[in-house]
Amino acid sequence: MQKHGDTPLKDHLLHTLHMIQQRERCITDESIHRIAAQYSLPVSQVRAVVAFYAFFQTEPCGDYHLFFSNCPACGYEQAGQNLLQMLAHKLNVQIGQTRPDGRISLHETSCIGMCDHGASLLVNGQPLTGLESASIERLANQIETAAPLHNWPQDWMHTDSAVHKTNLLLEDSFVPGAGLRTTLARGTDAALEIITHSGLRGRGGAGFATGRKWRLCKAAAGDARYVVCNADEGEPGTFKDRWLLQQQAERVLEGMAICAFIIGARQGFLYLRGEYRYLLPHLQTTLAQQRRQGLLGKNIGGEPGFEFDVDIVIGAGAYICGEESALIESLEGKPGIPRNRPPFPVTQGYLGQPTVVNNVETFWAAASIIVNGADWFKSVGTPESSGSKLLSISGDCTAPGIYEYPFGITVHQILRECGAMNTQAVQIGGPAGTLIGRADFQRKIGFEDLSTGGSFMVFGETRDMMTVVQNFTKFFAHESCGFCTPCRVGTTLLKHNLEKIATGHGTHLDIQTLRETSNLVQRYAHCGLGHTAANPILNSLQSFPEIFGQRLAARSFTPNFDLDAALSEARRLTRRDDSKAHLDSGY
Amino acid sequence: MPTDQQSFTLDNCKIPFSPGQTIMDAALAAKTYIPHLCHFPGISPQGNCKLCTVKIGTRQVAACTTLAEPDIVVESEIQELTDARRALTQMLFIEGNHICPSCEKTGNCSLQAMAYHLGMEDNHFPQFFPQREVDASHPQIWLDRDRCILCSLCVRASQEADGKHVFAIAGRGLDAQLIVNSSSGKLAESDLAPEDLAARICPVGAILIKEVGYQTPIGQRIFDQHKIDEIGLEQVILAHNTTATRDE
Amino acid sequence: MNNSKLKLATTSLAGCFGCHMSFLDMDERLEALLEHASFDRSPLTDIKTIGNCDIGLIEGGVCNAENAEVLRQFRANCRILVAVGACAINGGVPAMRNQYSLQECLEEVYLHGTGIVNPRIPDDIELPLLLDKVYPVGEIVKIDYYLPGCPPSADTFLHFFEALLQGKTPELPRETLHYD
């Protein structure tokens, strides 16, 4: 039967499935039946959950399970070499498969939040960073000699990030407990007023006013209220939440407790993306420490009756769970399919109860704002975007890492300060954000212009932007939850359409179709993923039309597939290679 | 009927509604058609097909899941939306294997009728030709996933109307597929019965009652005699499928 | 007078000639049509090569190399190319083989099926080589008009030609639209 082992995580369905995946290298149908019985769930629901999350596999995986990040900012594919393919070749394993001897499985995965460390991968959940062609060779050796992971070179496991620029929040000498003390002393209404007055807006990128969100939740009718910290930092190129959880988790947790006091919640969740599972021991230590200091648990800060604690729930590889209602579905042990809104989570969230979902950085900032006051926060930034913002800067620059800037800073200035030279493009806010070219570098970071959850990917002039746009387009097709028609079908149509153009087989008609399909997905999709999935294409059609134009085929119409290649299977089966066994490809 | 009933405007018509009613339900109650495939009166709406998308100002919303509000101005029968609905229908065609001439449901199929309604002459997009599993294990009902459009009506009908939990949708993106809640995953081991709403609600030829195909001659099939924009057609469809069950 | 007639070519690729039969269902109305149109390459004339034409009607999808060549010849020679019927438009019934790999299809038919003597996958160079799948014609060449139906009715054909002869853009009346 289920063995809880030494994990103090509560029996969340995702955790139980993770344990089985670890123990048995896959989740078999027998396990699915056992879990369904144990959780009193329909077998189909457990099957649906297993099928939804990329880290769950129904076929046995290898002793070493590798997820190689294909994020373009990390540079795994540069200067004519592709480290992922190199590794696959060295290990003699197909990408996406398990080697027949069961030693290794090699999967591609989207950004794992290590963009400032160069090419990186997860091996059995442990990040390996700074990979280069030489280390690929050594890595393959470790695997072939079955070296235990804890004996691998420690310099591969470097995960801390450099902080290059500080401002209000990083310079705040926050004393643990200070935020809660102020909150308790001022009372809920006054504390809420500080947050509202500060103009703090959600740091995940959408920018909903935090004070308003908390007030709506507080006012909503419900049997219980919940505080959820969205640490599903899946937007490619973002890693500032990972750094905050590594370095300042106590301030994040205190922000959650402040929110809990204001809205009247007793239970909180920190929803951590599966790629960050290695942060768990540290987070659990921090939780224990907060409890010891009376900052979590019962009678927090000596306030009788103020009880609040936080459970960690860990995802299993699904970008869509960063969308707040999908996250809540996942918290409830279901596939992460975004809900219809309204009702919004503030009125009907976790288990149908009023729920605040905020980004890691939002709670972190709120804790400091409570102590230092609204005016302190508003002293920097712009009228519509007050305060400062953490950026995760990666790509073609000399100093990738964490930067804190006041809102209103120009892209141009950021590029100068992060050591980016000959930059042709910047992806702001990740693939779901905005791709800009040189003509737009005077634009400003802020909700009124270029809003961002923190991702800032720099692409130098030697980059092939088509490769970047293709990478992002594939990313969305892979991460679409499949719920609604336009996104489920449209993202794959966009992927194929773009591939045809990228390989030089497209015509003006294909570009026209690309534009039409992009508009359809953008306007008709169910949630934010679909609304933004075509951004890389639409932005590049606007800012980099030449990457499309220079690839156009000479003919006015080209087939959707390579006709000669479509004969290859028949050639093989008949062993024919005569002239009639070939066709003009049509390109 | 309360005299102070609230209303909104749909394509220049005044549509009354009661608080809590969706745009779709209010429109249908006022005998005004908004195209839809995944909506069925009495079953909780989900909004996955997006055919019922309407415009409120510059905003596109699904009529079946958006609550009516006083005095909003809703556009539905406009060229932009008809074009989008046609494209969405074409997407549903190309992602599956919809070979109308070989399908028992032809003439009674809402997807096909919707395509007629929208004037769809071709598929526009390249065909995916996916390989999907057919489940013929049940003695009276078969499940051909080739034609499933993932509308989830059977999932919801089974839960809400039949009090069972026969179907679910599993998998992400294009891998999403209809699965059966039984130990083997086969329909034969499920508790689905031909009388269940879940067995009769399928708008396409994915869930069919066995041994009744092609019984209705051409000319007398549902969409030989009706157009999909007729209000209340759901009852005709259910009645047809019920007759099919009885005859069997 | 003959010179002003529309030149018409037709072919059936991976189809069943049902669309051609339906074309002939225009019956006596064909006579009136032929006052304005004459046939070039077509199974109805048995002319094997196509010349410059105004209209090409393609029945059937594309299942082999020969289909692809013929389709391309039609596109190169026809001012207006029309995809006629379900198979041309989306592959139709022949495309049901796309559920299987070509290898599975050929092995089932020529190696493992019942009653097979001397099992062998045919490899004569005179045989058109099969494509991996059956494709709609629109994925290979540009198509100007679509006449759906399995087959499109004689009325649909007539309506289409009448519009073209009157110099109008053919538009199918909604009530004639059907896919079966």
UniProtKB/TrEMBL annotation, chain A:
<dbReference type="Pfam" id="PF01257">
    <property type="entry name" value="2Fe-2S_thioredx"/>
</dbReference>
<keyword id="KW-0004">4Fe-4S</keyword>
<dbReference type="InterPro" id="IPR037207">
    <property type="entry name" value="Nuop51_4Fe4S-bd_sf"/>
</dbReference>
<dbReference type="Pfam" id="PF01512">
    <property type="entry name" value="Complex1_51K"/>
</dbReference>
<keyword id="KW-0411">Iron-sulfur</keyword>
<dbReference type="InterPro" id="IPR011538">
    <property type="entry name" value="Nuo51_FMN-bd"/>
</dbReference>
<dbReference type="Pfam" id="PF10589">
    <property type="entry name" value="NADH_4Fe-4S"/>
</dbReference>
<protein>
    <submittedName>
        <fullName>[NiFe] hydrogenase diaphorase moiety large subunit</fullName>
    </submittedName>
</protein>
<keyword id="KW-0479">Metal-binding</keyword>
<dbReference type="GO" id="GO:0046872">
    <property type="term" value="F:metal ion binding"/>
</dbReference>
<dbReference type="InterPro" id="IPR001949">
    <property type="entry name" value="NADH-UbQ_OxRdtase_51kDa_CS"/>
</dbReference>
<keyword id="KW-0408">Iron</keyword>
<dbReference type="GO" id="GO:0010181">
    <property type="term" value="F:FMN binding"/>
</dbReference>
<comment type="similarity">
    <text>Belongs to the complex I 51 kDa subunit family.</text>
</comment>
<dbReference type="GO" id="GO:0051539">
    <property type="term" value="F:4 iron, 4 sulfur cluster binding"/>
</dbReference>
Automatic annotation (TrEMBL), chain B:
<feature type="domain" description="4Fe-4S His(Cys)3-ligated-type">
    <location>
        <begin position="80"/>
        <end position="119"/>
    </location>
</feature>
<keyword id="KW-0411">Iron-sulfur</keyword>
<dbReference type="Pfam" id="PF13459">
    <property type="entry name" value="Fer4_15"/>
</dbReference>
<dbReference type="Pfam" id="PF13510">
    <property type="entry name" value="Fer2_4"/>
</dbReference>
<dbReference type="Pfam" id="PF10588">
    <property type="entry name" value="NADH-G_4Fe-4S_3"/>
</dbReference>
<dbReference type="InterPro" id="IPR036010">
    <property type="entry name" value="2Fe-2S_ferredoxin-like_sf"/>
</dbReference>
<protein>
    <submittedName>
        <fullName>[NiFe] hydrogenase diaphorase moiety small subunit</fullName>
    </submittedName>
</protein>
<comment type="similarity">
    <text>Belongs to the complex I 75 kDa subunit family.</text>
</comment>
<dbReference type="InterPro" id="IPR016214">
    <property type="entry name" value="NAD-red_Hydgase_HoxS_gsu"/>
</dbReference>
<keyword id="KW-0408">Iron</keyword>
<feature type="domain" description="2Fe-2S ferredoxin-type">
    <location>
        <begin position="4"/>
        <end position="80"/>
    </location>
</feature>
<dbReference type="InterPro" id="IPR019574">
    <property type="entry name" value="NADH_UbQ_OxRdtase_Gsu_4Fe4S-bd"/>
</dbReference>
<dbReference type="GO" id="GO:0016491">
    <property type="term" value="F:oxidoreductase activity"/>
</dbReference>
<keyword id="KW-0479">Metal-binding</keyword>
<dbReference type="GO" id="GO:0046872">
    <property type="term" value="F:metal ion binding"/>
</dbReference>
UniProtKB/TrEMBL annotation, chain C:
<dbReference type="GO" id="GO:0016491">
    <property type="term" value="F:oxidoreductase activity"/>
</dbReference>
<dbReference type="InterPro" id="IPR037024">
    <property type="entry name" value="NiFe_Hase_small_N_sf"/>
</dbReference>
<keyword id="KW-0411">Iron-sulfur</keyword>
<dbReference type="InterPro" id="IPR051349">
    <property type="entry name" value="Hydrogenase_assoc-protein"/>
</dbReference>
<dbReference type="Pfam" id="PF01058">
    <property type="entry name" value="Oxidored_q6"/>
</dbReference>
<keyword id="KW-0408">Iron</keyword>
<keyword id="KW-0479">Metal-binding</keyword>
<feature type="domain" description="NADH:ubiquinone oxidoreductase-like 20kDa subunit">
    <location>
        <begin position="16"/>
        <end position="163"/>
    </location>
</feature>
<keyword id="KW-0560">Oxidoreductase</keyword>
<dbReference type="InterPro" id="IPR006137">
    <property type="entry name" value="NADH_UbQ_OxRdtase-like_20kDa"/>
</dbReference>
<protein>
    <submittedName>
        <fullName>NAD-reducing hydrogenase small subunit</fullName>
    </submittedName>
</protein>
<keyword id="KW-0003">3Fe-4S</keyword>
<dbReference type="GO" id="GO:0051538">
    <property type="term" value="F:3 iron, 4 sulfur cluster binding"/>
</dbReference>
